[in-house]
Amino acid sequence: MTATSRLLLTLLPLALATPLVADTGQTARAVFAGGCFWCVEQAFDKVEGVVATTSGFSGGHVKNPSYEQVTAGGTGHAEVVEVEYDPERVDYEALLHVFWRNIDPFAEGRQFCDVGESYRSAIFVLDEEQRALAEASRDALAQRFEREITTEINDFEAFYPAEEYHQDYYRKNPVRYNFYKAACGRKQRLEEVWGDEAEASGLGADHLS
To answer: What Å distances lie between residue 140 and 32, 91, 102, 113, 148, CA to CA?
Structure first.
């Protein structure tokens, strides 16, 4: 065995135990609650620069909750979508633009036909920069509509993925999904609030208003 071979064998355990640099630092995360996470996931999947979306729960006090626990109430969690994105292709402000135009920002403790704490709208911020941008966007909308925006802005604490059957639900079950979305009145209400901007999947001319 050569000296080079012995060195490689010595370093192999260290290499196996160390995460690849390529797996970190290339993407960023955002966490949004906008009612039914099936619909929020679909909205962000359309955004150029979004790498992945995962439906789950955040904002509560119960660890690893089930969907049934969350929707029954009492866990404090909201249905959320964790958005993984490439900050070189889309920034957090653009994601906020999409988020607002896919929710009813005036509804409290509900979104569309879904009622309860788990369906509240919220932005879970991961750092001070996200908080500043989220608060600026909320304040700009309050000024634009001349009314209170009820969407919460909270510090992110933990994210718990929902069961596998909830992931990519709109793709796996298009008939059931589209029936639910239509019956829930989501599209109609978004058009009432946002007009032509409803269900935006990209950045407008002014994404803070």
So the answer is: 18, 18, 17, 26, 11
Q: For residue 22, is it within any domain?
A: no
**Which of 92, 86, 101 lies closest to 34 in space, CA to CA?**
101
- Residue 206 within a domain: no
Q: Alpha helices of the chain — where are they, by DSSP H?
A: 3-17, 37-45, 67-72, 92-100, 128-145, 169-172, 174-183, 186-194
Domain count, the chain: 1
pTM of this prediction exceeds 0.90: no
Q: What is the DSSP letter of 83?
A: E
Residue owning tokens 């001349």: 146
| SS3 call for 18 | coil
Return the CATH number at 193.
Answer: 3.30.1060.10
Tokens of 146: 């001349």
Residue 202 lies in a domain: no
User: Alpha-carbon distance 110 to 117, whole Å?
Assistant: 7
Q: Is the residue at 208 inside a domain?
A: no
Provide block-wise average pLDDT over 10 residues at a time, the chain (209 residues): 44 35 68 97 96 98 97 96 97 98 97 96 98 98 97 98 96 95 94 93 49
- CB 72, CB 35: distance < 8 Å: no
Catalytic site residue from 36, 39, 113, 184: 36
Q: Is 36 a catalytic residue?
A: yes
